[in-house]
């Protein structure tokens, strides 16, 4: 009915064999891993700087607006969606902006169908990775 280990631990604590204050596991980890590093806000700033440095190589290069980037990423994930009506939140003006940026091209004789260019596919991959590494 009673936990023998808990009883023994409490008796040890009462008798003074064991300290009653336990070290917080996070404080212990931080103390053990702080060797050669600064602590507190500096370590957070260092972590953020490192993360931004890793993220920098995936920075989008076409300078597209966020909503237009989202349409580009959607088109990369769903190649069967090739018209403004089949792409959520896309309109002719947004697809025209992607066309001007060189991310998409018109397909066939109909000017209302679009496909990604190689540059557009590369930009979509950069955007996806860039967003996944956001702090």
Unreliable residue runs: none
> Strand sequence of the main sheet, in spatial order?
1-2
Helix content: 40-55%
General shape? elongated
- Look at the helices and sheets and give the structural class: mainly alpha
How confident overall, as mean pLDDT?
A: 84
Number of separate helices = 6
**How far apart are the termini?**
49 Å
Largest sheet, if any? 2 strands, antiparallel
Q: Please give the radius of gyration in angstroms.
A: 28 Å
Taken in chain order, the helices and strands follow as: HHHHHEEH
Instruction: Give me the count of strands.
Output: 2
What fraction strand?
under 5%
3D architecture notes:
- It contains six helices and two strands.
- The protein has helices spanning about 5-15, 25-35, 40-55, 65-75, 90-100, 120-130, and strands spanning about 105, 115.
- A two-stranded antiparallel ribbon has the order 1-2.
- It is mainly alpha-helical and about 140 residues long.
- The longest helix is centred in the middle third of the chain and has 16 residues, at about 40-55.
- It starts with a helix and ends with a helix.
- Helices cover about 55% and strands about 5% of the residues.
- Helix 4 (about 65-75) crosses helix 6 (about 120-130).
């Amino acid at each position: 009915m009673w936990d023998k280990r808990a009883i023994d631990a409490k008796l040890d604590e009462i008798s003074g064999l064991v300290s009653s204050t336990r070290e917080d596991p996070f404080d212990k980890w931080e103390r053990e891993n702080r060797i050669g590093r600064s602590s507190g806000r500096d370590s957070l700033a260092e972590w953020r700087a490192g993360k931004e440095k890793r993220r920098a190589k995936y920075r989008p290069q076409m300078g597209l607006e966020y909503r237009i980037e989202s349409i580009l990423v959607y088109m990369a994930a769903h190649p069967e969606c090739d018209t403004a009506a089949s792409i959520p939140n896309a309109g002719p003006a947004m697809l025209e902006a992607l066309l001007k940026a060189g991310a998409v091209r018109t397909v066939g004789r109909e000017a209302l169908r679009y496909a990604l260019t190689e540059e557009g596919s590369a930009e979509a991959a950069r955007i996806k990775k860039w967003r996944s590494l956001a702090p």
